[in-house]
Amino acid sequence: MIRTLRPHQWVKNLFVAAPLVFAKHLVDGGYLWRTGVAVAAFCALSGAVYALNDVLDAEADRAHPTKRHRPIAAGALRERSAVVLAIVLAIAGLGACLALSWQTAAWAGAYLVLNLAYSLKLKHVAFIDVVLIASGFMTRVAAGGAAIAIAPSRWLLVCTGLLATFLALGKRAHELALATRDGRDAAATRAALAGYRVGWVRFAMLVLGLATAAAYVLYTVDAHTVEFFGTNELAWSAPFCVVGLARFAWLALKSPRPESPTDSMLRDGIFVSNLVAWGVVILVIVY
What we know:
- Helix content is 70%, strand content 0%.
- The chain is mainly alpha-helical.
- The chain has two domains: 1-151, Orthogonal Bundle (Tetracycline Repressor, domain 2), CATH 1.10.357.140; 153-287.
- The longest helix has 29 residues, at 154-182.
- The N and C termini lie far apart (39 Å).
């Protein structure tokens, strides 16, 4: 059951805490507690989504070189048990969000609806699948803001949307490259891949990577940002953003391994070191 919930992927739910950090409330106990509850709730919600998705994808996963080892596809976990687990976690996550505020629960509900639509049908539609993945990250940020009654800045939402789309396209590019290398039909394991072309996806990743970096730089030098933080030194964090984007692109395009690039980046020393350095620089400048 734990493997099906994919706890190593819960790091994505740290996006829920982004409004807390950039609103300068990281050291406020009350705000920190509410954000912690929201992050835990989204870990439960994302676990429910993963469990349901694995039930729906069991047959396709059995034809995949690595996904066939997932508990449900491998027969180590019964589908009925996974569905019950998903329902319990979804109810618990929504309940925790409702305890924080109805707005937080509304964003959590939107997150679930988007992911249900993705799992049931829209993950098979090229480009729509990527948009839904990006929307999932943006609802996390919005829910994190609602949990502490602070609206996230437009810049934060823009950067989140661009970054999430970039990461999702990187995953698609990796899947295409891996299938080509192994001589497999990519669409056999993910139907949406039939609508993608490696050259186009790589070009789109380049454009989105540049747009993400530009949006982040513009955010750091924006007059409102400088006034709010009382410094213009946030721009010093921009190089770490660029290095992180470039490293992920390399993992997705130049080093196609069986595991997803989003999994690889969390095990990549260069990427993790750069991410930690970025976090330290942000905390030092903001706090």
